[in-house]
């Protein structure tokens, strides 16, 4: 679940779902950083993002992590 800046009609935060996998690392522990890839469930909701945007990952409270967008690829058809 990611906070990518989308809001509901009432102005409440809407979280978006994306599959995540870690690149080039066998293990990834708490507090570590790594390159990851996200595959959004609904790519249309993510179209507004650009390189250098920071998004927040949520699983529960507190925030689970943050990501800085470094590359954007079009969805595969």
Detailed description of the structure:
The protein has strands at 2-3, 18-22, 36-40, 54-57, 65-68. The protein is mainly β and 77 residues long. It has one domain (2-68). The strands form two sheets. It has a three-stranded antiparallel sheet, with no helix packed on it. The protein has a two-stranded antiparallel sheet with strand order 2-3. The radius of gyration is 13 Å and the shape is globular. The two termini are 23 Å apart.
Topology:
Elements (H helix, E strand, L loop, with lengths): L1 E2 L14 E5 L13 E5 L13 E4 L7 E4 L9
Antiparallel strand pairs: 1-4, 2-3, 4-5
- Overall geometric form: globular
- Give the count of structural domains: 1
Strand content: 25-35%
What oligomeric state best describes the polypeptide chains here? single chain
Strand segment tally: 5
How far apart the termini lie comes to 23 Å
Main β-sheet description: 3 strands, antiparallel
Q: What class, by secondary structure content?
A: mainly beta
In round numbers, the mean pLDDT is 90
Pick out its properties.
three-stranded antiparallel beta sheet; 77 residues; 5 strands; globular; 0% helix; two-stranded antiparallel ribbon; mainly beta
Short description:
With 77 residues, this protein is mostly beta strands. The protein has strands at 2-3, 18-22, 36-40, 54-57, 65-68. It contains no helices and 5 strands.
């Amino acid at each position: 679940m990611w906070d990518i800046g989308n809001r509901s009609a009432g102005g409440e935060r809407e979280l978006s779902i994306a599959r995540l996998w870690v690149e080039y690392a066998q293990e990834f522990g708490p507090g570590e950083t790594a390159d990851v890839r996200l595959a959004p469930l609904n790519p249309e909701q993510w179209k507004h993002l650009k390189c250098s945007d920071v998004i927040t990952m949520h699983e529960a409270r507190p925030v689970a992590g943050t990501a800085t967008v470094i590359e954007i690829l079009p969805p595969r058809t």
